[in-house]
Sequence to fold (128 residues):
Amino acid sequence: MGKPHPFELRQRVVDHVAEGHTHRSTAAHFRVSAKFVNDIVKLHKETGSLDPKPQGREPGHGKLEPYKDWLLAQIDQQGDVTLDQLARRLKEEHDVDVHRWSVCRLLHKVNLSHKKRPFMPKNSSARM
Fold:
């Protein structure tokens, strides 16, 4: 995500439009997009403020958020359950169609992750 334009630029753009200049000429003058000029003027008219709107989603919004407790209970019941099994159970029991990586991201958010490592013998002679 990009950074919002500085407050001073926002104020100068709104003032320039208020002086009677068109949105396109204001955009060309300040070297910004016409959409930015339209949006900032609209924001100023609606809210009276030039503060940027928050970017991104609020935490806690997601397809799996309502099922987080259910997923954690499934893991408590069966500790060796796989991501594929969890995704399949979500589909069967709650009719929620998700990819296993969506489940993985949710589990990482609650600090539940386990990387399985293959068994490796301690000495190289055991490999032969």
